[in-house]
Amino acid sequence: SWTLRNTLPSQSQTADITHAVGGSPPVLYAGILKVPAFPLNELKTVDFFSPATMMLQASRADIDQPFVRTTEVASADRVYVGLNDFDAPDGRTATVDVSLNGGTTYTSRRIETRNTLGQNGPSIRPAVAQDRTVYVAYFGWRSQTGSDVTSDVVVVRDDSGASGATPFRDLLDPSDHLPGRLVATHVTIPWSNAPTLGQERIGSTLSIAVDALHSDNVYVAWADRVGTGDIYTVHVRRSTDRGATWSGDLRALTNATDASLAVSTNGTVGLLYQQVTGAGSASRWVTRLEQSKDGFATHQDVVLATVPATTPPFQFLPYIGDYNGLLTRGSQFLGIFSANNTPDSANFPQGVVYQRRVDFATHRLLDGSGAAVAVSIDPFFFSVPVLP
Questions:
Q1: Using one digit for the tens of pLDDT, what is the confidence trace for 47-58?
Q2: CA–CA separation, 256 vs 84, rounded Å?
Q3: FRET pair for 82, CA 20 to 30 Å: which of 67, 69, 330, 369?
Q4: Contact at 8 Å (CB) between 302 and 270?
Q5: Which residue spans within 225-353 are E strands per DSSP?
Q6: Cβ of 243: how many Cβ atoms within 10 Å?
Q7: DSSP secondary structure code for residue 179 in this structure
């Protein structure tokens, strides 16, 4: 069962939001862009069940896509908030807000060391292992022609939890000896704030995940345009030597977006993504979770949802979201994605439970009085067992 807690200090909605759990007993951290005006709020609550508004720990303007990860070191939470900070100097906007004391204080750490076209891509994604190794993936935007951005895919690493005076300098690229390994160079990012892929905008799909118990093993996923008739292609690569070298594409998924990676404690990697299949009125958004125990030499996948891509018609962007969420807890992959909410069992092959009134027989959503309401986009939570 579910209980609603309106604990975020934001009017009617938030813009971007992510959260992470730290501490023992558990503490909830969140990063949001607050309504109105969209300032960054870095938030905390020590009581998941309290209806009280989360405590504000830090706030500032001119931030995009806060992305929160945590770990515990000597009974103190360390919090890492990847974000795009438009007030950073020299157009090197890729930033991680680091707290070594449970969010009491934050320090902004700039991680871009090369020239950009004026900013980095919006997605700045940290991942933390139990031995305090922190990886961060980001897009190094180098130039732009029309709506196409030429970008590098970059990963930085810190071996001591970003606790030193000059963090995120432990992984150098052999081409220029600067911090930040170039996983891929000169990729084409179609930057489109218009309905481009299944009514969704595109331009900033990026994810990174580390094996928490074996920090040498790290995966990165991103999307770009290959140029072979695709709109947007998700790529997955792996490093087994702490980011020093990287595989070629382990997965290449045409016309896909919203890739999210997670690695379970037994080393199984999960890949959540959403892909447009078919064409025209027959096109569909298909949401899949893939799992692999051998670095994607082989994989098993499950279809979580397959819904029409043309309905409902978009009213604003993002349509299904700029990113989704995937994590592991114990023997489960847990995640959230958004999709067309028509109550049709055929759209959800693994089954679905709605937290609202629906009529599966007539495929209708209902209001409190039983009257039909229009189809829209809803978030869906899922839990899938990790491959043993």
A1: 988 999 999 999
A2: 23
A3: 330
A4: no
A5: 233-239, 251-254, 256-263, 269-277, 284-292, 300-308, 325-329, 332-340
A6: 26
A7: B
Measured distance CA(360)–CA(374) in Å, rounded: 14
The DSSP code sequence of 16-71 is EEEEEEETTTTEEEEEEEETTT--EEEEEES-TT--SPPEEEEEESSEEEEEEEEE
Report which of 309, 287, 303 is spatially closest to residue 196, judged by C-alpha positions.
Answer: 309
Q: What is the mean pLDDT of residues 55-70?
A: 98
291: β partners: 270, 300
Within its chain, how far is the Cα of 24 from the centroid? 25
Q: What is the pTM of this model?
A: 0.98
Dig out the tokens for 121 from the structure: 């891509």
CA atoms within 13 A on the CB side of 143: 4
Side-chain-side CA neighbours of residue 10 (13 Å): 23
Between the CA of residue 172 and those of 42, 142, 364, what are the distances in Å?
30, 18, 55
Structural domain boundaries of the chain?
Answer: 1-161, 191-388
CA–CA separation, 335 vs 207, rounded Å? 14
Cβ neighbours of 75 (radius 10 Å): 8
Residue 25: pLDDT band with limits 50, 70, 90? confident
Task: Give the other-Cβ count within 10 Å of 376's Cβ.
Answer: 12
- The tokens of 54 are what? 């989360």
The residues near 104 (Cβ < 8 Å, ≥ 6 apart) are 57
Closest alpha carbon to 191 in 88, 121, 273: 121
Q: Which amino acid does the sequence have at 117?
A: L
Q: How far apart are the two ends of the chain, measured CA to CA in Å?
A: 27
In angstroms, rounded to a whole number, what is the distance separating the alpha carbons of residues 149 and 144? 4
Q: How far is 122 from 279, CA to CA, in rounded Å?
A: 29
Facing residues of 222 across strands? Answer: 206, 235
Would you call 224 exposed, middle or buried from its count of C-beta atoms within 10 A (0-12, 13-18, 19+)?
buried
